[in-house]
Amino acid sequence: TGYKIQNFYHIDCYRVEKPKEILDLGFKEIISNPQNIVAVEWVDRIRKIMPKNTIWIKFDFVNKNTRQISIKYTG
User: Fold this and answer.
1) CATH, range 7-74
2) CB 43 within 8 Å of CB 49
3) DSSP state of 34
4) Quick one: a GO biological-process term for this protein (predicted)?
5) What's the pLDDT band for 1 if we cut at 50, 70, 90?
6) Taking a C-beta distance cutoff of 8 angstroms, is the pair 64, 35 a contact?
7) For the residues 35-48, what does the mean pLDDT come to?
8) What's the predicted TM-score (pTM) here?
9) In degrees, to the nearest 5, what angle opens at C-alpha 3 toward C-alphas 51 and 68?
10) Cβ(46)–Cβ(22) under 8 Å?
């Protein structure tokens, strides 16, 4: 508790074919630091290596002007 946020990382996994690719870039070190906030796009490509204590934010397309946002915590 009381962590001060130091870094914000945006990781786009669109071109990732295997989770190992992102691990080779230091992904575990980034997500293991409680002072980091990490936003991952195309997370389905690396879902099996995501930590259990993750906040999942999903944006669904409803129509041209509307998105539905759902938030779920797993921990």
Assistant:
1) 3.40.50.300
2) no
3) T
4) tRNA threonylcarbamoyladenosine modification
5) low
6) no
7) 94
8) 0.79
9) 55
10) yes
